[in-house]
Hints:
seven-stranded mixed sheet, 7 helices, Metallo-beta-lactamase, Chain A, single chain, globular
Amino acid sequence: MSQEFRLGAFAIHWLEGGVFEVDGGSMFGVVPRVLWEKKCAGTPDNYVRLANSPMLVQTPHGNVLIETGLGNKLSEKQKTIFRVRREWELLSGLARLGLSRESISHVILTHCDFDHAAGVTMYNETSGLELTFPAAMHHIQRREWEDVLAPNRRSAESYWPENFVGLTEGKNLRLIDGDSEVVPGLRLVHTGGHTRGHQAVWLESEGAMALHLGDLLPMPAYSNPLWIMAYDNFPLDSVAAKERFLGEALDKDAWLLFYHDPAILACRLDHDGAVREAFCAE
């Protein structure tokens, strides 16, 4: 999947982080299937197929990975429950680009749900647990990390402790309060909504701009600010954040980058929320 998308001096590659299926009602909340299936294909039993495609951003200041995929720690039972249709092959994708685990300088998590964070750690050849990217600084909102350490009953189902073993603040974990720059041209902004500490990623290089809104905008079908997941912990915050950031992206003619869409990896929207230009998976 690792075809290259150019954004100024940045090269972006989508890597194989696994594919799974999620209940359509959970993905679209109060939006009825008769509406959402016009924009997103569903299975006969009402599931939606989601890619988990980490984005490698190669910049003049280092290699940055946005999201980490499903990882290699899921049990056979979990693979059945989550209807995994394609395995995590992130490291193979890096190798095809001539990169190793140690080549990644920064890892960004928009939030810490397992489908975004399970690739932070991995089982090695002896089934030992270790950090997948030992040389990387991992960037997470402080509010998100607080909820990882002390999850409520709802978030505990998705914040798995084994995904964060080995992360230590000040060593390989950078906790962010609000907005912050990771490398020149790559900036994190707190959004909230999906989770309390959910963040988005702005990218800017040589006048070109892109925005990754994480699970606030998992695919173009969610361009209507009122279309949100049942998984969103703070739904009104999601709506407000989408209105704000989609408006900014439109004003700046920015590309929108997607982690979960199996077909459209990046696009620009028009004023009606329709895709007017797309970069698609091969």
